[in-house]
Amino acid sequence: LWCCVFCVSVLASFRGMGQHGLPLEIGDTVQILEKCEGESPDRDGIFPSSYVHLKNAHIKNKGQFETVVPTEDSVITEMTATLRDWGAMWKQLYVKNEGDLFHRLWHVMNEVLDLRRQVLVGHLTQDRMRDVKQHITARLDWGNEQLGLDLVPRKDFSMVDPDEISVTELYKLMEHRHRKKEMPVQPNTHHLFVQVKSLVSSNVGEELEVFFSIYDGRESRPLSERFFVRLNKQGVPKVSEKPERQCTLFVDLGSSDLRKDVYIVVHIIRIGRMGAGEKKNVCNVQYRRPFGCAVISVADLLTADSRDDHLLKVYTCNAENEWFQIHDNIIRKVSSRYNLLGSSAGLAVSLQLLHGDMELIRREYMTLFTRDISISKKLGFSDVIMPGEMRNDLYITLEKGEFEKGGKSVARNVEVTVYVLDVDGHVIKGSVWAGSGEPGTDPFHSFVLYHNNSPRWAEQIKLPLPVDMFRGSHVRFEFRHCSTKEKGEKKLFGFSFIPLMQEDGRTLPDGTHELIVHKCEENASLHDCSRYLKLPFLKASLLANSQTAKSTKESFWITSFLCSTKLTQNGDMLDLLKWRVHPERAGDSLSKLKEIDGSEIVKFLQDTLDTLFGILDENSQRYGLKVFDCLVHIINLLQDSKFQHFKPVMDTYIESHFAGALSYRDLIKVLKWYIDRIVDAEHQQHIQEVLKASEYIFKYIIQSRRLFALATGGQNEEEFRCCVRELFMSLRFFLSQESKGTSPIAQTQAVFLKSFPTVYSELLKIFTVREVASFVRDTLGSLAVGMQADCPLEAIKLQCIAKTVESQLYTNPESRSILLPVVLHHLQTHLQEQRDLVMCARVLTSILSLLNKDDMDQSASEEVSVIVRSLLTVLLRTILEVTNRPQPAGTSMRLQFQDVTGEFVACLLAMLRQMTDKHYQQLLEAFPTKDDLKDFLLQIFTVFRILIRPEMFPKDWTVMRLVTNNVIITTVLYLSDALRKNFLSDNFDYKVWDSYFYLSVIFINQPCLQLETFAPSKRKKVLEKYGDMRVMMGCEIFSMWQNLGKGKCLSRINRQDTRNISMSKHFWPRAAIIMNWSEGRACKKKKIIPSAVCLNV
């Protein structure tokens, strides 16, 4: 019970030396009973109000063991108590000369104090408060682990009260925290932070452009776009006052990208004269010229936990025509094709791998994003595509060219100039990006290779154009010869172009394109785009014998790659979306949908679904089956891990945009048509795909029916219900077919059972809870019985039951009363046969977690009775068998073994804690003979002895041990009556009494109950919540011993154990029992009853 009171926190120590004074220490919590103004009251317990701070508080467990708890954030309460405990232990570390831990704990304590101040001030945002609390709990857990303190069960960063949650939930929390401590979760997404510092020991004397990219050495292709930094003539970043321009974050690297053959590749371009050694007065025009390259493996960064500085060696090409593959030559160590720039020269950078999704990175590294750091994206989408992700980037790589000499005696110095022009022929400003980190330009100039008519650039650019600007826009590539003479002219000699979107609406397809080089020597000729846009632009489009093909020998190659969430390059997708233009082709478009890439479908998910249901509404007789198959394909596409985050998009579509009020009839009709043909079908694969999509098929059916009912006022309701009942009849017939575990029908049954629980919540939107529960009960009950124990379908069936008891349907008491018998029947069968124990533990945990002793009404009490009657005995036997098995050798198998043992123990404790006097009475009266009762008592006493073994739970699980002991002593008190009533006098049974007293003595001697060995704060908490359980058990032993009478004796307690117990100042307030262990053992062998009893009262 809770009641509202006030308490105070002591701010300064008060000795309380005066009359009636109450001594106070800093940090004490004191309950206020009365506040007096003026004269002091004539009673004990007074202190000055200025020494304390007033707080609201609650009294918990009002009565003898009541506790005053301040109504503040539980995290603050825990911090205060923990720091107080650490303080005393921290001083002992100094005394014991454990200097390393002493200093580390000191830093952590100061850190926790600082975080506590932040929480108390209350100025943090919600997200920041969550991060701070997470940080606090991580620090508290670290300190507790280092000091050998107990593991604290938490939920949402707050400590949980074991009395307010079920034992099964408590075990889950403890086990989760224990596993998290032992096996931290490895993130699947990674990001690379890069900061450019300088080019060291370089005497170039020219400005430099540095380009970083992630490169796959195995497939010889870039994985990311480029990051671009400008360096001045001194080799330091040109914009030093803007540090964000020197840094980038390469985002969305998958775990598969962190391998030895994935590299960070750096290309350095100098801006200056054609030749590095030329005199300044030869030519004033500056060119972009190749300079150097550096490479480092991403795998070299995996072991670093913080940002590391690296000096990357820079290499130059021996031959300029090899520049396009210099990085490959360095990776493959073809040293004959490159040279080291200088032994002391290098590019100084800082590199760090960050792990986790972007939301986590933004929270943990807030300073990076407050400075507006540039983001370098992956080429293509990440391993997981998120809905709402907006991206429209076209990447073009200038690959190579083939040019004629043009009447010159030597080869040309070719520079490519890139423009992007809109539908009106105007240059789109800032549309060409050489890389992230620097704004876009117009135009873009390629680097120049000296005297080379077959230049190979392999230079990547990005065109981040808005979607509406693609139609009608084109890219123009102008080719100029760069003279090295004094004037430094750049003379135009040709151009190529390529439209960004085709006439049918498709964007430029990915891949390599060979463009025609049209001759042009006047810049003015390019001012009017309409003059050349009608010309052919692709070599592949020319006929071999055409005049243009004969006159055009020069070519220019580019590679394009589109990464867009709005544009498509797929003609089949466009044909489907525009089916009304050619309705006679709708069937062909539907048939081709399965061949379209999944990323294209999710881009236009809503439009595609609208198209499917539009075709269904207009011609369901002709296209109903094809539309249904396409819908199944899309639904199953979203099961893929890459697209699974689009499920909410489909959910939103169903709830807010779906308008097919008549679609439910066709969907039910086709679904039933498929199910009715399962038994006779030769191939089951497509039918299995249909059943795998059951969840969303039912979502569409139910939403369609709701729309129809809303529009018509509920017409045809009985017809709809009849159709659903017939559908479930077909399902039950198909499930009732007997088949071997590996047969196609059995595999189809397994597919359905896996997806069946997902339809419950949809059925509840129209049908009552009892109707849906009846559907589920009859469907699960229709499966063929008498299957072999090793049949895979039996395990799938149990998994289906597990999902059923975890569903929304099962949480309703009405449905539980219908479903519980069939669930318990299957669970009991599996436990009796010792099959699928992991899944059995999961099912039983879910069942018991819904029971709450504080809310025990008639129906809940009946549930407990049914569960106890069905499972208690078999659960005890299961625990005995599991704990007696040898532990598996493998680590993963051993962990699974420990998990299932712990879960069954938690289930037993939860079941016993829910039982009342009535349940114990029913349990004990249900045994037909005393032998059955005896077997039960021996079994449960043996299990209890197992539960209090030190190895039952990890060493720091004190909370779980105390809950276990509390349940044991409560149960023993109930079972004591059965012993007295059934096994005394003429019915005396030595074995039962021996087991009882043996358990009692072991219980008393447990290390976790020796309160005098605990720290004062821990001892106080245990006494307030549970009292001294040794005293309770000792009193019960005394009472039971008295019942035995003078003629009966059991000797079970070792003399040394007895001496230790009786010497404890906290134990035996009423009695001390001393029994002779050795004499009892000897008497047992001689089959006589010893009479040596010493009883001190």
Automatic annotation (TrEMBL):
It is found in: Cytoplasm. It comes from the Eukaryota. GO terms for cellular component: cytoplasm; plasma membrane. Residues 391-563 form the C2 DOCK-type domain. Residues 1-18 form the signal peptide. Pfam families: DOCK-C2, DOCK_N, TPR_DOCK. InterPro entries: ARM-type_fold (IPR016024), C2_Dock-B (IPR037811), C2_DOCK-type_domain (IPR027007), C2_domain_sf (IPR035892), DOCK (IPR026791), DOCK_N (IPR032376), DOCK_N_sub1 (IPR042455), SH3-like_dom_sf (IPR036028). Keywords: Cytoplasm, Phosphoprotein, SH3 domain, Signal. GO terms for molecular function: guanyl-nucleotide exchange factor activity; small GTPase binding. One of its GO terms (biological process) is cell chemotaxis. Belongs to the DOCK family. This is Dedicator of cytokinesis 4. It comes from Scleropages formosus (Asian bonytongue).
